[in-house]
Amino acid sequence: MARDRRERLHELLLALIAQQSDLELMDAEGPAGISTSLSGEAPADAARWLDRNRRVLQRYQALVRTAVTFDALLDAETTAGSEVNDGF
User: Fold this and answer.
1) Is the entire prediction scored with pTM above 0.90?
2) Could you tell me if 87 and 33 are in contact, meaning their C-beta atoms sit under 8 angstroms apart?
3) How far apart are CA 31 and CA 20, in angstroms?
4) Where are the domains of the chain?
5) Which of 34, 49, 67, 77 could hold 12 in an S-S bridge, CB 3.0 to 4.6 Å?
6) In the predicted model, what is the mean pLDDT of the chain?
7) pLDDT tens across 39-52, in order?
8) What residues contact 20, with CB distance under 8 A and at least 6 apart?
9) What percent of the chain has pLDDT over 90?
């Protein structure tokens, strides 16, 4: 049962991701020269890099929460449907 649910969650998440036309990937490379640069731009570059990755991560988290919500709704519908059928 848990495996089926995990697979369904995975499928829901992939479907949600497929609908996103402008979904970005996180930037694994940090801003160049943070540790070696003495310029005033290095902290600003680092802040922009962190902020962008934070926004990307929040978007993925929202997609995961949406998939979990859809899964719970599907589970509730399935459970309610089986209870109705059991009464007949």
Assistant:
1) no
2) no
3) 26
4) 41-82
5) 67
6) 87
7) 678 888 889 999 99
8) 63
9) 59
